[in-house]
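Appendix B. Chain record.
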Amino acid sequence: MPLSIDVWSDIACPWCYVGKRHLEAALEGFAHRDEVEVVWHSFELDPGAPKALGDEVSYVERLARKYRVPTARAQQMLDRMTQTGADRGIELRFDRIRAGNTFDAHRLLHLARERGVQDALKERLMRAYFTEGEPIGDPDALARLAGEIGLDAGEAREVLASDAFAEAVRADEARAAAYGITGVPCFVLAERFAVTGAQPAETLRAVLERAWREAEAPEPAVEEGAACGPDGC
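C-alpha cells predicted for this chain:
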C-alpha cells in the first residue's frame, strides 16, 4: 500500500509553489519514492474573489492595501519572496500576475487526478500564474493550459462549463477545516503526520522517513513554517 501525502494548497499562493519544490527535493532519492502517492487538494485563499480582478491595481498595490503598509515596503516583501523563489528555481513575476478566483482551476485539478496528470497540471498552473501572467480564472486559458500537459482541452472546457467536480473541491475544503488547516501549504503524510507551511526539504524528508517507519503513531506530529492564509502570506 503506498504512503499517502495529501497536500492542501492554492494555485495563487507563492509559499505553496516553494513548498512544492521542497516536497520534490524531499522525495528525490527517497528509497521508497515509487511507493509514495502525492495528491493535491483544494484550498482557496480568497473564495470570494471574482473570476478576474482587473488590471487597474497592481499586485504590489493590493499587497500594500492588505497589510496597510507603504508601497515601497510591500515591494520589499515581494523582492524577498522573489529571491526565495529564485533560490528554488522558480521565477516569480509579481508584476505580471493577473489575479482571480481559483475555484475552476481546482476543479480541473480533480479532473487531472482522474486522468493521472494532476501533478503536471498543478505545476503548469502555478507557472502560468506566477511566471507567465495567465488569468487564472479564465476558462479559455485554463482549458488551453490543461491541453498543454496532456488533458483533452475539449473535456476540460466541458468541465469548466458545468459544475463538475465542484463538490469535490468543497469536500477538500471541508476536510481541511476538519483537520484544522487554516494556512497553506499543508502536507499530511499517511493521514497521521502534518507539516504546515513551506518547511525545508530536510524537515519534510525527516517526517517522510518517520511516516514510512511508523505504521501507527500515538499522537499526530505537526511541524509549522511559512504559509499563506486568508489574511495573507
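Further analysis of this model is presented in Appendix C.
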